[in-house]
Amino acid sequence: MDKWEDNRAWFLVLPVFIIVAFSAIIPLMTVVNYSLQDIFGPGQRVFVGVEWFKEVLSDKRLHEALVRQFIFSGLVLLIEMPLGIIIALMMPKKGWGASLSLVMLALPLLIPWNVIGTIWMIFTRPDIGLFGAGINALGIAFDHTASPSDAWVTLMLMEVWHWTPLVALLAYAGLRAIPEAYFQAARIDGASAWAIFKYIQLPKMRGVLTIALLLRFMDSFLIYAEPFVLTGGGPGNTTTFLSIYLVKVAVGQFDLGPAAAFSIIYFLIILLLSWLFYQVLQNVGKGEA
Q1: What's the predicted TM-score (pTM) here?
Q2: Cβ partners under 8 Å of residue 147, min gap 6
């Protein structure tokens, strides 16, 4: 009886769970239905089975978009993780400087994603943008709308500027959670700054850094608004990631069957990454316990 009474609070969450599940299942079932049929018009459809899945999986453009997606996410992590740790180490620990640093770091995270793309699109324009026009004034040809390399550089700068603060804030929280006694003992032993970082700070930040790593990988893997506003997937298809390619298939070409099959495959990829995310967090929690 006690066990039943302890679990009665879950009934308060049950209506919300049912509504959320219902609102998620209906669109998912609609996508599954479209992925198994060839739709010609209202009431005109033919069951094709897994034909669309075979077509999507053999699509070279999808393979290229997937490779670009992993390259982009990998580069983002290689830059943002070390940079965020460095910023966290440089931030003040106490006083008004710490509060000001936290507020300034949080500002980019408060800006909507489509606004971020618009800001950087204007900022890097080669004719009127402060960055783009300034680079061209130095004699360096820069145009993210015409050059694939310039487009990638602009995307990386935008993504690093937007999301490095998240890594820095998480790393800073991990640093502030380390007891001062560890640092006092290290100073008494004459440990160098590098030794303190390697043997005290970095191990104690392992949990928050794991969270930051996986969050940033998953978020960069789902990126859509920023590159769509900034480059539209161009020039050519050089910045067409999975989400942009999906929108082009569904909206631009209006191929509902392949787009639905692609959506399910994309969903399964995200589901797998979410499962890995959960498993890693569980292992980190057990290790720290």
Answers
A1: 0.81
A2: 141, 235
